[in-house]
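Appendix B, Record 12. Input sequence as logged:
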Amino acid sequence: MARAKKAGMDLHRRSMPKQKPRVRRHNFSEVALGYDAETAVQEASRCLGCKKPRCVSRCPVEIDIPGFVGHIARGDFASGVTVLKQKNLLPAVCGRVCPQEEQCESTCVLLKKGGQIAIGRLERFLADWEAQQGQMRVPRKRKSTGKKVAVIGGGPAGLTVAGDLIKLGHKITIFEALHKMGGVLIYGIPEFRLPKAIVQREVEYLRKLGVQLITDFVVGKTRSVDSLLEEYDAVFVGSGAGLPWFMNVPGENLNGVYSANEYLTRMNLMKGFLFPEFPTPIKEHRRVAVVGGGNVAMDCARTALRLGGEARIIYRRSRQELPAREEEVENAEEEGVIFEFLTLPVRYIGDHEGWVREIECLRMELGEPDDSGRRRPVPIEGSEFTLPMDAVICAIGNSPNPLIPSSTSGLEVGRRGNIVADEETGRTSRERIWAGGDVVTGAATVILAMGAGRKAARSIHEYLCEG
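Logged structural output:
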C-alpha cells in the first residue's frame, strides 16, 4: 500500500466529463468524453496498490488491475497498455460498457470510505491513448501448433476465444452471420454509448494478430457445425442471444410494435439514424413506449429521444429494482426520458390501418420477493388506464436463436433454448464443441461473455495440446 500512503489517502473520485444533456439529446455522438492524461494520472495515483487485490478476483477476464493502474500513475501509458492487453483484447469496449461498479470496483478497499478507484474509466483512457498514438502493438505469437479452431459468432465471447487461441499458436477462423464483426457491440449498443469505430478498431487488432474473419456466413444454413468439425479440430459456439422475447399481449402484431433487436439493429448496424445518407428508413414516431428496465431498454428510449420523439420507459417494478446500470438510468433521466414505474402493459390498441395508437396498462404494487430476490409486482384491481403511443419497443430479454442447436445433433439444450455448457470449461455434450456467452447464459453483460470465452479458450487449448 506504499503508493497511496506516501501521498496520503485521496478519496476524491474524478468525475467523467460528458456532453450536456440539452446538447446530447439531439445527437448520436458519444456522451462520456473520457479522462485527459492529467486527470487519469490523478485518479490512478489514488490506488493503494494492494498486495492482495480483491478487484482482480472480481474481474471475469482476470486483468492485472493494480498493474495497469500503477503504470498510469507513473505516466508510463505504453506499459499500462501492454499489461492491460495481456488479458483484455477489447479494453476500449470494456472501459465503456462493463458494469465495473458491480465487479472490480465493488471490492475496492477504498469503497468503505466512499472513494473507490474509477477502474473502468482508467481502462478506457489507456485504450483511447493507444489509439491516439496511431500505432497498434501486436504481441508475438507462439510457434504454430498446426491446430485449427472455428469460432461461430463475432461477438464478445467469440472475439475473446479467437484472441486467446491465436496467441497460443492455433489457427483461428471466426464465422459471423452479419456483415460486420462485433455482435451485440455493433448492432445492439448505440453509437452515443459505444462508437462503432471503436469496435472496428478492436476487431482490426484481432485481424493483425492473424485471425481470419469471415462475415455473411450463417452457420446452420451456409454450413453446418458437423461440416466444420470435418475441417477444424475444435469449434466454439458464441452466437449470442438474438431471439427476442415478447409479452404475448393482444396487439403485438400491430405496425409500430418493435422488438428491441429490430429497433437497435436498424439504428446501429444499419445507421438508420443517418437516413437518407444511409438507406434504412425508420418511421418518425412522436410518442414511443419502451417496455422493460434494463440497459437495452435505456438504449432504446435514449435512441427514440434523439430521433425527435417523446420516450417513455414502462416498467412493472419501482426505480429501486431497475436492472439497468445507475449511470445509464441517470443519463436517461437527464436527457428527458419519462419513467412510468409500477406499470404493466396489458394490451396494445390500434387504428383502422393497423398502427398502434394506445397502450392499456395496469398500475402495480410490490408484494413479497420472488426467486430473483426482488419484490414481486402485483396488479392493483381496477387501475386500468391508457397512454397514447404510436410506437412500442419490447425490451424484456432474449433467447438464443435455435438454428445451431436444431441443426446439430447431440447438442444438449436447456429450457429456454440455451446450449448447455460447463461453467468452468465451456464444454458441451458434443465432443470437440465448446460454447459460451449469451448462447449459454441468455442475454447478459459483455464482460461475462468475455469471461466465458476466456475459460473456453483455456479448455480448448488444453484439449488441442493433448491431441
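Confidence is low (pLDDT under 50) at residues 1-7.
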